[in-house]
Fold:
Amino acid sequence: MENVRVRIAPSPSGDPHVGTAFIALFNMIFARHFKGTFVLRIEDTDQSRSTKEFEENIYKALKWCNITWDEGPDIGGPYGPYRQSERFSIYQEYAQMLLDKGYAYKCFATAEELLEMRELAKKMGHRIGYDRRYRSLSKEEVAEKEAKGEPYVIRLKIPLQGECVFEDAIKGRITTPWQDIDDQILIKSDGFPTYHLANVVDDHLMKITHVIRGDEWISSTAKHIFLYEAFGFSKPTFMHMPLLLGDDGKKLSKRKNPTSVFYFQKSGYLPEALVNFLTLMGYSMEDAEEIYPLEKIISTFDPTRIGKSGAFFDQKKLDWINQKYIIETIEEKDLWKRIQEWSFQEEFMQKLMSLAHTRMKTFSDFIPLCDFFFADRLDLTESLFTIKGVDQDTIKQVLQYLLFFLQEDWSKENIEKASHEVAKRCNLHHKKIIIPILFATIMGKRKGPPLFASVAILGKERARARFLRAIQFLGGISNKKLLSMKKFWESEEILALDSNKKS
Ligand code: GLU
Structure:
């Protein structure tokens, strides 16, 4: 294959997801095998959710996984800028091109109109919420509305009949009736582009030959195909990778599983083992071997061996692979150094000193006091979560409400605030109920060093994983229940608990 150019296009709107590393890895393997170029593009069109810190974390996480790219915002390249927020004028230009060619139109629907349409569509069982009422306005009508300063979005004029057919290089032929596809917004009323427009324009301008991305984007591809055709661009080859699945058979999600690459780093996994494990999630080796260094995968890579269906993210298997890597790739004489580099660095240990200083009779109290910083899966027991007058359903709901509050801010101050707010809104005693729940969840014991500071030092990735594990240990929360809890949480009323007793 000649001049292969592939890319990953993450949005910097959350912790670096292990799924991003998975897709990046296959793009890199593909590029290296075919002696092509691997591009990293930052898709930060959603300015309300994108941050510089999340962007930096994407670079850090990928680098930790030994994933390297040839062009990107941090290193430049011939097709930059590689950050979409620096390319807004390009998207305007291309949207105008579609308006001129009659493949897009200005839609003046107000928020109330859209709501009405959506409700009606729901009642009638229609798949598409927007009824295309502004699709056929005359030039004069559009000009009149614009002159009055009515806000508008630019929408794609999806065909009303027929179907979109394309060959996915992994999944085979995909057919989607155009009737199932809405007139996608391309430019929002604030002038910002949506993912679809920016993504297609950039893949074209950056000369991407193969779009290798997660299965969750397959339903967007028909819109993309239409955009390529409307612009008159040649289409890349699409390859939709299998999804990483959680225990529930659904897409691995942060709401239920530890998904941040930093969680795996901080929990003591080796990047080589994680990468090996991720490769197995999407690919079957010819000789059914499971331990495969990256170089060997690159040299023997065969795209037809990429899996078609989702793969369970089995952490026990990852543990097994990790153990193999510890045994086979680290010599005993280097082991302590590697463990030190993992979590016994000066800076981290100094943080623990402030917790331990006044709490030791002898130095030998240090390890038992701080053991939970160096453990991953704590030994949870029923008695740990036995709190007088509070049943286990309540405990897991409290943990979920705390997660709703904390979101991305796991600073000491915010954790303390969260605990008070949840106590108040659940009508529970802060010290007698919330605090013991938190100690049990984070430390696997009833007391220890100062709680809020400990959670902050542990870090949000590992702390969140402990919350999720405790919720799981207490029986888990169904998706339906989770949704209704979220609704209550957002209502700002006193929260509903299955049992709501004060001790
Ligand atoms: N910005 C999208 C994401 O966050 C990119 C999807 C694609 O690769 O087209 O994953």
